[in-house]
Design goal:
Strand order of the largest sheet: 1-2-3-5-4
Oligomer: single chain
Strand content: 15-25%
Radius of gyration: 20 Å
Structural class: alpha+beta
Length: about 325
């Protein structure tokens, strides 16, 4: 922990921020990053900050932490609800691929947001607020994002299939869903900045509602409806299957919130196509975590547990395509 403290101090000093680093606490986070909360104390004030550091493992679907921070900073500057970036690691930084941002008070653990009484009022309007947040993200100017991956639905599907085939683990439901999606006609929409992983777990919620959107490692430029469909994937309802939006809200409220900011005409049947795509995509991500645990540089209980969820996504895809699921 002392080495981590020195590394954090070095990165802050590169931005002329001095102070004593203390109370470094690991936070629950994704499998591809290490996340820590810490305190910075100097003569003027006490500040709470968060470090996001790459785990060292690479993913074919994720951008670097440094690029993630650059994008998040631009989104913040244009008014979307994200945490302010404090410092981004340089090539010679001890932290390597990392960034530091201001701490946004609230909760990101899905089951706490869904069950704790202190969030009961926040849950009532959360789907609407998520719709608003997505509309703001999708309205951000693309002028500064020349390095962000650009994909249309066909390219996304082709790239996902190539990733899936790398594991040489044929799954009949996956194969059929890839074919089903290739036969769909996705409505052409002007490309926008897409968060890529907007869901419960990647938003911070306080007692009043949505406080910030976090974890931008899967950001891309493409069809904005993919974010709406991803938010409605059954895996992100955490057992509250009847509440389509994150296990806490209704689709009509998500769309209503989106439409309060954006003029884009939202078609529910189009969202459903992206739900199927999202379920398939999450299934492939589960495969990535499985093989990273079995064969990769960073095996872990978390990666193994995520790998076991492949079968859940197969059920969700069949339910959406043929059993009237929502």
């Amino acid at each position: 922990m002392e080495e981590l403290k020195r590394s954090i101090s070095e990165l802050l000093l590169s931005e002329k921020i001095e102070g004593e680093i203390s109370e470094i606490t690991p936070l629950t986070g994704g499998a591809s990053a290490e996340t820590y909360k810490f305190k910075v104390t100097n003569k003027k004030k006490v500040s709470l900050m968060v470090l996001r550091k790459g785990s060292g493992a690479t993913s074919p679907l994720a951008i670097s932490k440094k690029d993630e921070a650059i994008i998040q900073n631009e989104v913040f500057q244009q008014g979307a609800p994200v945490a302010e970036i404090i410092a981004i690691s340089k090539e010679n930084s001890l932290l390597k691929d990392a960034y530091i941002m201001k701490l946004v008070e609230g909760e990101s653990i899905a089951r706490k947001v869904l069950r704790d009484k202190r969030f009961s009022e926040a849950r009532k309007n959360l789907a609407f607020e998520c719709g608003q947040a997505l509309a703001k993200i999708h309205s951000v100017s693309l002028d500064s994002f020349s390095k962000v991956p650009r994909n249309d639905p066909k390219e996304l599907l082709d790239n996902l299939y190539l990733t899936y085939k790398q594991f040489k683990q044929p799954l009949p439901v996956f194969e059929y869903t890839f074919r089903w999606l290739r036969e769909q006609e996705f409505i052409e929409i002007e490309p926008s900045l897409v968060h890529g992983d907007f869901r419960l777990g990647n938003i911070i919620v306080n007692e009043k509602g949505l406080a910030a959107v976090i974890d931008w490692e899967l950001v891309n430029i493409g069809n904005p409806i993919q974010d709406l469909g991803w938010m409605c994937v059954n895996s992100w309802r955490f057992g509250n299957d009847e509440k389509v939006v994150g296990g806490f809200g209704d689709l009509k409220d998500l769309i209503k919130g989106y439409s309060s900011i954006s003029d884009l005409d939202i078609n529910e049947s189009e969202i459903k196509k992206w739900q199927v795509f999202g379920s398939l995509r999450w299934g492939v991500i589960c495969l990535i975590q499985t093989f990273s645990h079995l064969n990769g540089p960073s095996n872990s209980v978390e990666r193994a547990a995520i790998g076991r969820r492949v079968s859940e996504t197969e059920i969700d895809m069949i339910n959406l395509m043929y059993l009237g699921g929502k």
